[in-house]
Amino acid sequence: MDNYSFIIKPATEAHTIYASMITDEMEQSAKARGTGIAKRSPEYIMTKMMEGKAVIATTSDGEWAGFCYIEAWGHGKYVANSGLIVAPQFRKFGLAREIKKEIFKLSKTKYPESKIFGLTTGAAVMKINSELGYIPVSYSDLTDDEQFWKGCQSCVNFEILQSKNRQNCLCTAMLYEPKAQKNQHEDLALRDDFKKNIKLFERWTRLKKYVLLNLKKTKNKTFNLF
């Protein structure tokens, strides 16, 4: 196995040269998973870098390896760590976990009073979030900022979100509350067996996907009868 050395730090204007590569990989990764993410332009990613609201990973040789950025919603009451992506050749090295840790730390520095949330279909990301102190919550516990939910319109599963009145979808909602007491997180966190075994996460996401996608198919067949 190749022995890579990564540099993970807040992105700056100097990193804007990677913006197009990052957005291209975000789109390709979403297609490969069969899910959708809110599409972002290279210009949007550049803005996040210049605002100091992003973390980037590069190799010691300057090759782009991974990325994640911060978005604030509801006048800063809620913060999301979005667009986590690792270049294909650098996956399986634990890089996503390290980027997540850095963007989480940056989020708490920039928005110390904000709730940090995420929506993901990825079992690995769910496990990392749990390790950082996120807990699984209902969609109603997330921001009601309409601009955030508009971002879901580019997702291939947006119809499911609409049909569930924005209360459920293939993504799992997770939330970190900075003012929550430690024992509250422990009481609400995922079961110990989930923390130890990522296969259980994967089983849960597969089951959720199966149920919701089959409901969508059934609905479409019903519509076709009329």
TrEMBL record:
SUPFAM superfamilies: Acyl-CoA N-acyltransferases (Nat)
InterPro entries: Acyl_CoA_acyltransferase (IPR016181)
Protein's UniProt name: N-acetyltransferase
Organism: Belliella aquatica
